[in-house]
Each structure stands twice: as C-alpha cells, then as structure tokens.
Amino acid sequence: MAKIYYEKDADLSVLKGKTISIIGYGSQGHAHAMNLRDSGLKVLIGHKGGAASKTYKAATDAGFEVVGVAEAAKRGDIVMVLVPDTIQKGLYESEIAPNLEAGNGLMFAHGFNIHFQGIKPAANLDVFMIAPKSPGHLVRDEYVRGAGTPCLVAVFQDATGQALKKALAYGLGIGGARAGILETTFKEETETDLFGEQAVLCGGSASLIKAGFEVLTEAGYQPEIAYFEVMHELKLIVDLYYRGGLAFMNYSVSDTAEYGGLTVGPKIVTEETKNVMRQVLKRIQTGEFAKEWMAEYSSGGKNFQRLRDAEAAHPVEKVGAELRKMMAWIH
What's the maximum distance between 2 C-alpha atoms anywhere in the chain? Predict the structure, then answer.
C-alpha cells in the first residue's frame, strides 16, 4: 500500500524565504502559483513567450512578476517545470540548467523527461515531483474552498537531504496535503500515467465509443440514438465510478443494466485485450513509446496530425456536434 502524507507531515516553513519559480502558466501553472502565493510563499513566473501571449497577460493580470525562463531559473530556489513534455528538454538545456546552483530544487508534475533521461540533472540538485491528480482548475477551486486534491510525491535525487521535506511543503502549499499526498517514484508515476492514458482513459475509451457507434449504425439504427447510447450517457456512468467505484455504479443502475454489464463486459474486454495492454505497457517500460513520440514531435508531427484529422472526421464527432447544440448546460 502507498504511504500517504497529510498536513501534519508537512512543514511549510521549509520554503519560507525561498523563491519558487513556476515555469509555465497554463492549467497547472496558474493553480500552483496562486495557491502557493495564498499560502504565503514567494512565487515568480518564468515565461517563454512574448508579452502578447494570453498566458503572459493572465499571469500579469493576476499580479505576478513575470520574467524570462533563464532569469526565473537563476532567481529561483525551487524551479517547477510546468511546460509540455515535448519542449522541456530543449528549454531545460538552453535556459534552466545554466542558471541553477548547487542545492536548488528542480521540480516536475510528471516524470516523463527525468525517467526517460531527456533531462539529466546535475548531481548537486534536489530533483522531486508533486503531481496533482486533477486538472489545474480543480486544484485551484478546491484550495479556495478550503480543501485540496490528492497529489503524488516522488524524489529522484536528494542532494541536500531535504528533498522530501521540500516536496511535502510544496504539496502543502498547493493544498494537496489537505487531501493526501501518496508516495511513488518517477518510474511508477510515468509508466502508469502513460499506460492509463493509452489503454483506458484516452485510447481505450475513445476506441470503445467509436466501435459501439459503428456497430449500431451499421445495423441500421439512427446515428443520433447511437450517439446518446455510447457517448452521451457515458458521462453518467463515469460520474458514478468517480463517486463510489464499480460497486456504486452497479448499485445505481437498473438490475437489467447491471446483469447485462456483468455478463457481457468480459466478452468485450477479453484475455486477448489484456495481452495487448501488456504489450502497450512493455513499450512504455522499455522507452519505445517515449522515443516514438519525441521523434514524431521533432519531425513536425505529420502522423500525429493525420491521426487527429481522422478522429475529428469520425461520424460520431459530426453527430455529436449537432446534438450538443441541444444541451445548453454544457456550454
């Protein structure tokens, strides 16, 4: 079982008087910055775009000092890297690494570049992670209402002997210790995160939706009805999972739905499906997926764009775009 840390296990004073540089002011960046500031800590925003960008304006409008990435790295005692995985390596090598000093803390919210060695930090740095298990807006909203969202904590490198204390203090500062901070490793966080995205959350669920839609429409059912049954109502089920797990979902639906699901589900996701999942996990563990993805990005992402275009052109998307016009509550 994972070790879980709470407010009593974290000491915010570890970060008092230190400058925390947040590199990037997107979904996670804005939430971390605001929560840390509201917790009484000194926050600086490192921004790679120009003053005309939306995130630059959002950060300055929020009252933060915004400087270039190199200056933020130089001034920061803790440098939290919250830009996309694909640009972290280049940004780190050109702007961040040359400006770090011995004993500085280098932080991440996802272990991709550390685990797969895109970024190779100097041995005199603390390298650690606080990864909220929720989108940035929820990290902020829960903090404001006096609660928090669960986080993961991991230490990759402990040069000062204080890395875990710094990480937990940061987790407390953004509100995560109010809910609980689960201990993990960069390896575990990275590999399970990628697997979840590919096999279940993004890849698996989207493919299941498209397959269900295709089976119904090929059998002659109206596409609008098919959309409601395989896409629209999925949110109702996911919300039940989110609230109380599999048992609560089965308790909440009809006996007919529960029995049908329990008897048919294993016929859809078979041992063969699990074997494919095992292959997916193996590609992640060996670094094969990471190499493929970084090569795709570096080459201009033509195949990525082709896949995006095909997804956008699927009939379930066209039908859904029209039906969602009926649903004022989602806009």
Answer: 67
- Per-residue pLDDT tens digits for 157-174: 999 999 999 999 999 999
Q: For residue 12, give the DSSP letter.
A: G
Choosing from 30, 32, 110, 115, the catalytic residue is 110
Calpha distance 83→119 (Å, rounded): 13
User: DSSP string spanning 46-88?
Assistant: EE-S-TTSHHHHHHHHTT--EEEHHHHHHH-SEEEE-S-HHHH
Long-range contact set of residues 243-250: C-beta below 8 Å, sequence gap at least 24: none
Helices (H), 146-222: 163-173, 176-179, 186-195, 203-218
The answer to whether residues 246 and 265 touch, using CB atoms and an 8 Å cutoff, is no
Tally Cβ neighbours within 10 Å of residue 48. 17
Q: How far apart are CA 152 and CA 1, in angstroms?
A: 14
Active-site annotation holds for 331: no
Cα angle at 207 between 298 and 259, to 5 degrees? 150
Amino acid at 147: A
Q: Which two tokens stand for residue 194?
A: 């990628």
Q: How far apart are CA 121 and CA 291, in angstroms?
A: 19
Q: Is the backbone of residue 134 left (phi > 0), alpha (psi -120 to 50) or beta?
A: beta
pTM (2 d.p.)? 0.94
pLDDT digits (tens, 9 = 90+) for 249-274: 999 999 999 999 999 999 999 999 99
CA 162, 163, 169, 170 torsion-angle sign? positive
Q: What angle do CA 110, 59, 53 make, to 5 degrees?
A: 90
